[in-house]
C-alpha cells in the first residue's frame, strides 16, 4: 500500500512556525507501507516559517491579513498530481489545517475555535476519489489498513 502523509506528521519541519507535528502513533501504523511525503503549503510556494493561515469561507487568509488562497490552491493541485502519479491508496493529513484539515478546521478568526470543514488539499484529494483521513484518527486508519490488507492478500 502506498500512503500519502502530511510531511509535518512525519517529523519534517515544514509547519508554519518552522516546527513539525511528528505523530509516533501514526508512524507505527504506517511503518510497513510505502510513504509519499507532501507539504501542500510548500508545494504552493509558501516559505517555512510563514504566518499562520486559516480558511475564511472560500479564501485562505494569513494572520497578517494577506490572501494566500492562490498558494493553497496551487499546493492542492500539485498534491493531487503527486497522488495520481504515485497512485496512492490513502492520504493521511494534518488535522485542523487550512490545507490538510479533515472534518474540522479553524474558523478563520485566529481564536483557536474549530468548525466543521475541510482544508483545500483534503477537499481536492476527496474530489479525486482518494480516501483521506486525519492524522488524529488512528483507529479509523488502522481499520482501513486492516481491511485493505485483507482484500489484497
Automatic annotation (TrEMBL):
It comes from the Bacteria. This is DUF523 domain-containing protein. It comes from Copranaerobaculum intestinale. The lineage of its organism: Bacteria, Bacillati, Bacillota, Erysipelotrichia, Erysipelotrichales.
Amino acid at each position: 500500500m502506498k500512503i500519502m502523509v502530511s510531511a509535518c506528521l512525519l517529523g519534517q519541519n515544514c509547519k508554519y512556525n518552522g516546527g513539525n507535528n511528528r505523530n509516533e502513533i501514526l508512524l507505527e501504523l504506517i511503518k510497513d507501507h510505502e510513504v509519499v511525503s507532501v507539504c501542500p503549503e510548500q508545494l504552493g510556494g509558501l516559505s517555512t516559517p510563514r504566518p499562520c493561515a486559516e480558511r475564511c469561507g472560500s479564501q485562505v487568509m494569513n494572520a497578517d491579513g494577506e490572501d494566500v488562497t492562490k498558494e493553497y490552491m496551487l499546493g492542492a493541485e500539485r498534491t493531487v498530481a503527486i497522488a495520481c502519479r504515485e497512485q496512492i491508496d490513502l492520504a493521511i493529513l494534518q488535522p485542523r489545517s487550512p490545507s490538510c484539515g479533515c472534518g474540522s478546521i479553524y474558523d478563520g478568526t485566529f481564536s483557536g475555535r474549530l468548525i466543521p470543514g475541510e482544508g483545500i488539499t483534503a477537499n481536492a484529494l476527496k474530489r479525486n476519489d482518494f480516501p483521506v483521513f486525519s492524522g488524529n484518527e488512528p483507529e479509523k486508519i488502522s481499520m482501513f489498513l486492516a481491511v485493505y490488507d485483507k482484500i489484497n492478500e
